[in-house]
Amino acid sequence: MGENPAKSHYAQLNQGEENEMEIFGYKTQGCRKALCIAGYILSCGALLLLFYWKPEWDVWANCIPCSLEEADIVLLRTTDEFQIYSRKSVTWISVSAVIKSKLDYPGIAEEDSIFNEALMKPSLQVKSIQVQKIRYVWNIYAKQFQKVGALEDHHTCSAIHAKFGSGLTCNEQNIRRAICGPNSIDVPVIPIWKLLIKEVLNPFYVFQLFSVCLWFAEDYMEYATAIIIMSLLSISLTVYELRQQSVKLHRLVESHNNIMVTVCRNKEGFQELESHHLVPGDLLVLKEGKALLPCDAILISGQCIVNESMLTGESIPVTKTRLPQADNLKPWRMHCAEDYKKHVLFCGTEVIQTKGDDRGVAKAVVLRTGFNTAKGDLVRSILYPKPMNFKLYRDALRFLMCLIAFAAIGMIYTVCVFALNGEEAGEVVKKALDVITIAVPPALPAALTTGIIYTQRRLKKKGIFCISPQRINMCGQLNLICFDKTGTLTEDGLDLWGLLPSERNCFQDFHSFPADHSLPWGPLFRAMVVCHSLIVWEGKIQGDPLDVKMFEATNWVIDDSSRHHIEGQGSTHATVVRPGPKASSASVEGVIILHQFPFSSALQRMSVIAQEIGGEKQVFTKGAPEMVATLCRAETVPSNFESKLLFYTAQGFRVIGLACKSLQTGRQSTDLTREEVESDLTFLGLLIMENRLKKATKPVLEELSAAHIRSVMVTGDNIQTAVTVAKNAGMISPTNRVILVEANKIPGSFLASVTWKPLEENKTEEYGSLVSVKQHVSLQGRFGQYHFAMSGKSYQIIAQHFSHLLPKLLLNGTVFARMSPGQKSSLVEEFQKLDYFVGMCGDGANDCGALKVAHAGISLSEQEASVASPFTSQTPSIACVPELIREGRAALVTSFCMFKYMALYSTIQYLGVLLLYWQLNTFGNYQFLFQDLAITTVIGVTMSFTEAYPKLVPYRPPSQLISPPLLLSVVLNILFSLSMQIFGFLMVQKQPWYSRTDIHSACLSVDSHMENSSSVSSLGLHGMGDGAPNEADDGYKSYENTTVWLLSTINCLIVALVFSKGRPFRKPIYTNYVFILVLMGQLGVCLFLVFADIDDLYSKMDLVCTPTSWRISMVIMLAVTLAVSFLVEEGVIENRALWLLLKKTFRYHSKSHYKRLQRVLEQDSSWPPLNETFFSDSVAISVDENMGGHSNPTFDSNEDTL
Q1: pTM of this prediction?
Q2: Which stretches make up the Cation-transporting P-type ATPase N-terminal domain (predicted)?
Q3: Most buried among 42, 352, 603, 1103, by the most CB within 10 A?
């Protein structure tokens, strides 16, 4: 039954967000419920179990559809490709205890508030549901469920100051608390019994339980017991791990739930209370000293320095400034655009330092509470990971379905054979069900996960931590890696290389560092001294590495301890910088930093307002030179600014522009807006930093290139610097051309233009600078001969106005510069749309979004496991990338090997049993036990030990089970096994010593004849001969049984050896010593069983004695099967050249979007266009400001299964 989305019955929850869901309303119906209860009883709980697995069936059976307004049960369905259903009950929250009289109504909240719109009058109740720890209440007017626990987004900056600037009243706070719930990220430790029940009710274990019950019914005690012990061990380990995770998560969040905080109450002054009483809209007072933040809050006065390493993995202190009091009608977040995070203090981060301003102490309005906060969001992403969609897992399910279909055929055959021979109905049912447990191996899921567990351990030894093991297989498919530049490809710390001062619109003499003579005191030196966001923390100067290097070069020191009297502001806590002991003589005692506008990736600059002790106030700005130059008065910018900038960036230097201006006295520095401060500046010069490549960068990029894995640079730095670094690192080879793609909006219209300019290194030009080449360069339209480079601004305009060009540009785009965090995430998603498997390697902070969106995000962080990405490398070098790809490829191949082996083992056993069923015989219990336990279980555990091959080959392993080589391999090996077993089965009957009635006819020993008897089996041997003398004593024994069992057992070993792939993705199989020893040991035991003639052993194993000549014949059959199987696997299945030839012959082309596009562009002589400008002829597609669809409160990212 599907869903009929009638408007009032259906709605969307969290529309446009990452956790978007569809919601359907249902009402419980008494008679339906009674029928279901009867069904539970009659089915002995099977129906209840089915409803537990399929909650939607439960709702459809028990309830009738109704409008969401009347619903007492809601059914939720995720909107992704998995369409997972969940069932929730609607609850009522009563607020009558809080609202004593009608006089309290006005105090509830403003008219447009959700708290007002959700309250049903006169009952004073609120209808709510809780989904993934978030509470939603029914909005009576909007007729929809809305999230509570966060301040509404529609507030403007001035409204936040006006409405919440003096705090909430006690009554308002109580109502909000009743509706929003407590401000706590409560992760209770799950009781062991709950975890146990949840694990046991897994369909896989239910199937095992069914198998075990059947085996007990057939007296197959030993293997049933072994499976019970293994399952209990597996369940215990899983429950133990889940419990440990639960305890760990509980401890991680427990600390923040009970913090004492001070809030400001409207008309009642300050009040101290426990943090779990906080509600959105409360006014929080931030005291001096260290403190953990118990919620997300917007700073509305003062300034804070926080350590956000818990969220980003970077321990650089971050400066937060107060929300401006802008009087426009834009919602506060839109007004602040990407910089809204500069005013938000995130839950779980640590406040290191607070500074008051002219409004008094630092205060913040509570923005989000509980699981709505940044930390809550991270905890939820751990509790409810996003399901992984990988072809391997889907194919595995399809394969299981095929095995079940295969088993169904066997069941029909079994019923026919046994029923026609007049067997009892009970026996027929048992034998038929037995076929399922043979054809579908119960150990399959466990065998598939062993490879991933071993890989995870190997990665851990190499310093790579993984918090999402199912992504390891995905790493084997990566074919494009995006790298951040600074701190990833290049060294984290920059060295100050030189300074190019500018005076009266001319550049002065270049000043190099370290220099013999110190820099003279002047505006440029002053800018270096104050234009930063450094702090003294734990006795060390901390902050951005660039700021640290710049400040250290001045030999000044930060005096962060004293209070300073500032004219018009009284005494305030401000940062003061003073000349250090080694500093050159300066005419001032020190400089006070009054106010900061922190660095913003979107604005590409930072500014400070500073004042010399006893001097005037000045503004200093530093940032991207192009950006700083646009803020300066044109007459102060040197005429050769662009050529000088090009000269340094082309050599790979990081260039920073500096500017300043004087402020008129009279106005408070805190009243000035950023726009007022950062205008009409005087250009001071360029700061040139050297950013060296890390040692590992070039060899790693060469290795990836040799393996045909694309490398792309995504950076916030200047485009010329990025291109030069890409060339130096080998990302762009010297023979390849770089084409600069520039897109601009046409002023005064909705149109835009895009221009292609080739960047050519002109050797005759002085300094080898990059210049635009005007003549048309002939570029063959072949992949790899040219590279596109573009800025974040151009990328955004192309995405909006030229969306049809974007895929073409991405196909050869190698350098993306000046990219904001949101644009980085968007770029990764666009690459994924082209069917690339994308890896992202960055340093955590501004790459968080992209790290989560990518198929494999690798964070270079010192912390053991960064919540920012699925993989974390403790070694801050990109050498972890090829390592991860190698291990991913090995894990993927191991999964395929295990799958093929498990499928073949069950098929071999299944074929053997069906052959023997023809004679109403089957394998004995110890024969099954030997195959299941001694052979398959041991192989399953040791086959995955093979390590990854050290060299990356220029192609990837197949990504799906249902690929022609894999299917052919399985089908051919099944045919070989079938042929051998049928041949053995028929040939043994043609031997001169063969007898169906006398199983001792082959061996003439009388002693053997007397002793070789066994107990009566439940399986009678009707039809095996007329009145045979030993019929009752022989159990499962027969020449066919002995022949088929010995052949099938050793066949399992042959298959294990043939399927154990070595090169090119794993080390040769002989390096897996444990596996080889196990195989040799098992083969030794099997050959011993073939040739030994120990009566007791044969009796126990239900084997019979055969002549030596027949035993040798069996070994020859096995040797032939091994030879044929090995030759076919190596000569056909693993013959890459043959498959490529077949592809060429049948004109098979890859269906990947990027491959198709590549083929189209190869035929297009007009691509790439050079020295041409295109204009958009249609209205722009509306693209979100941050280019990232959903905006996670912390990262602007899509949370991708932690």
Answers
A1: 0.76
A2: 147-220
A3: 1103
Handedness of CA 461, 463, 464, 467 (dihedral sign): positive
Q: How many residues does the chain have?
A: 1202
Question: What mean pLDDT do residues 293-304 have?
Answer: 88
Task: Give the model confidence (pLDDT) of 485-533 as tens digits.
Answer: 877 888 766 778 888 888 877 888 777 776 656 677 788 888 988 898 8
pLDDT in tens, 395-453: 777 777 888 888 899 999 899 988 888 888 888 888 888 888 888 876 676 677 777 88
Peptide bond into 1168 cis (omega under 30): yes
Q: Which domain holds residue 739?
A: 475-488+694-760+785-874
398 domain-assigned = yes
Question: Tell me: the pLDDT tens digits for 827-841?
Answer: 998 999 898 999 999
3-state secondary structure of 1113: helix
Distance of alpha carbon 758 from alpha carbon 214, whole angstroms: 73
Q: Which of 282, 339, 357, 484 is catalytic?
A: 484
**Mean pLDDT over each residue of the chain, to the nearest integer:** 80
- The answer to whether 933 touches 905, Cβ cutoff 8 Å, is no
Q: How far apart are CA 374 and CA 793, in angstroms?
A: 28
Q: Rounded to an integer, what distance in angstroms lies between the CA atom of residue 724 and that of residue 693?
A: 11
Q: Are residues 591 and 613 in the same domain?
A: yes
Query: Which of 255, 282, 300 delimits the end of a domain?
Result: 255
Q: Are residues 737 and 845 in the same domain?
A: yes
**Is 1125 a domain residue?**
yes
Residue 844 has pLDDT above 80, yes or no: no
713, 883, 1149, 1150 from 1155: Cα distances, Å: 21, 26, 8, 6
Residue 1053: per-residue pLDDT: 94
Residue corresponding to tokens 């034998």: 431
Asked if 484 is an active-site residue, the reply is yes
CATH for 641: 3.40.1110.10
Question: Are 855 and 986 in the same domain?
Answer: no
CA dihedral (1021, 1023, 1025, 1029) positive or negative:
positive
Same domain, 482 and 497: no
Domain boundary residue, one of 1091, 1108, 1134: 1134
What are the tokens at 1056? 């294990």
Please state, in angstroms and rounded to a whole number, the distance separating the CA atoms of residues 638 and 503. Answer: 8
Average the pLDDT over 594-606 and give the result. Answer: 80
- How many other C-beta atoms are found inside a 10 Å radius of the C-beta of residue 448? 21
Least confident of 578-592, 595-609, 736-750, 761-775: 761-775
Spell out the residues 6+ positions from residue 736 whose beta carbon is closer than 8 angstroms to its own. 784, 785, 786, 787
Express each pLDDT in 46-65 by its tens digit.
899 999 988 999 999 999 99
φ/ψ (deg, to 5) at 582: -95, 0
Residues 519 and 599 in one domain: yes
Lowest-confidence segment of 661-665, 1013-1017, 1083-1087 by average pLDDT: 1013-1017
* Strands (E) located in 457-523: 464-466, 480-483, 495-503, 506-507, 511-512
CATH code for position 418 = 1.20.1110.10
Helix 880-917, helix 425-439: angle, nearest 10 = 160
Residue written as token pair 């096994």: 977
- Residue 562: the pLDDT is 53
Give how many domains the chain has, as a whole number: 5
Sequence-separated (6 or more) residues with CB below 8 Å from residue 659? 527, 620, 621, 622, 628, 631, 632, 681, 682, 683, 684
Identify whether 901 is part of a domain: yes
Same domain, 901 and 859: no
Confidence of residue 1182 (pLDDT cuts 50, 70, 90): very low
- Kindly give the pairing relationship between strand 813-817 and strand 786-791: parallel
**Does residue 20 fall inside a structural domain?**
yes
Question: Do 477 and 944 form a contact (C-beta atoms < 8 A)?
Answer: no
Indicate if 860 and 895 belong to the same structural domain. no
Q: Quick one: 678 and 545 in the same domain?
A: yes
Extract the runs of DSSP E, i.e. beta strands, from 729-848. Answer: 737-745, 752-761, 770-772, 786-791, 813-817, 838-842
